[in-house]
Amino acid sequence: MNKVLISTVLCAVTFTVATSKNMDNPNTNTSLAPIEHLQLTQEWDKTFPKSEKVDHYKVTFVNRYGITLAADLYKPKDAEGKLPAIAISGPFGAVKEQASGLYAQQLAERGFLTIAFDPSFSGESGGMPRRVASPDINTEDFSAAVDFLSVHPDVDADRIGIVGICGFGGFAISAAANDTRIKATVASTMYDMCRVSANGYYDSANNADARYKAKVAMNNQRTEDYRTGSYARAGGVVDPLPADAPQFVRDYYAYYKTPRGYHARSGNSTDGWNVSSALPFINFTLLDRAGEIRNAVLVVHGENAHSLYFGESAFKKLQGDNKQLLIVADANHCDLYDNLDKIPFDEIASFLNNYMK
User: Fold this and answer.
1) 66-107 pLDDT, tens per residue?
2) How far apart, in Å, do the first and last CA atoms of the chain sit?
3) What residue segments make up the domains of the chain, in order of their start?
4) Under 8 Å CB-to-CB from 312, ≥6 apart: which residues?
5) What radius of gyration, in Å, describes the C-alpha atoms of the chain?
6) CA 39 – CA 64 distance, rounded (Å)
7) What is the CATH code for 54-192+248-272+286-355?
8) Could you give the strand order of the β-sheet that contains 155-165, starting from the edge strand earlier in sequence?
């Protein structure tokens, strides 16, 4: 009997025993998910220097799928009373020690209580198998962060917003369409991961044959993964960099593969997502209900970003005078990860403060 089958049998036995026990005990609350014990790094291991203007803590919370998420909490030093709060994640394939942590620290310096969290199945967060993504679960991760902030003693629950970077910009807009507690949303240098997975870059593979070919390859990999009991990884940012690599790949390399942004827990810096992770993104869409978002949304994108068309398309779906598109002059996609001269933090903070009232 192979190890996958053994694991499946053991899980089935465990589930049966646990279920029977819970059914026999009417006092057991099966709606409560246990918090996983996560191994959280306590030293400062970020890709950016620590600010002396904020306090920093490690926190955890559970999403509605029972996955425990790990986050860094940043709070302005000597802050009193209940604060407006922001949950931040992204880019897709990154960890909280990279761009999202920088955003969280910068916004904490501007008066917000912030958390930068690792998505489910990645970084220091829980969930098995590792390095798998989901348009549903990753959207839910934002709402789970809102759950946590809503009951935090230092947070004004009526003033909660979210920021999504790169692929998590799309998830942030998806979360805002579903979660009315989110008073303001910022999507920075955003990707629509469902669109790019289904259609390719610039919709160049938007046809049934191309999608079928991709699905065949990933489903074949699923069979092999199940046979071997391990998940093949797609690889992070290409390394070494090919001589003919397009400029946006060079930009990714300059961030994820150099001391500027490298982190050992980041899939983009190391061996990437599971090969089959992109499969559900082909059949799902993220932004169909974006036009129904009533609370505020700010889309921030670089003028020279290869991904600008995602941000512009998303903005066209939005309705109402509380929506804004901010194009940053002479900025590429990765400039909005960590370039303090180009990320418009003051404008972002002003937008959040204006609409989180």
Assistant:
1) 999 999 999 999 999 999 999 999 999 999 999 999 999 999
2) 60
3) 54-192+248-272+286-355
4) 301, 325
5) 20
6) 21
7) 3.40.50.1820
8) 54-62, 68-76, 113-117, 83-89, 155-165, 184-188, 296-302, 323-328
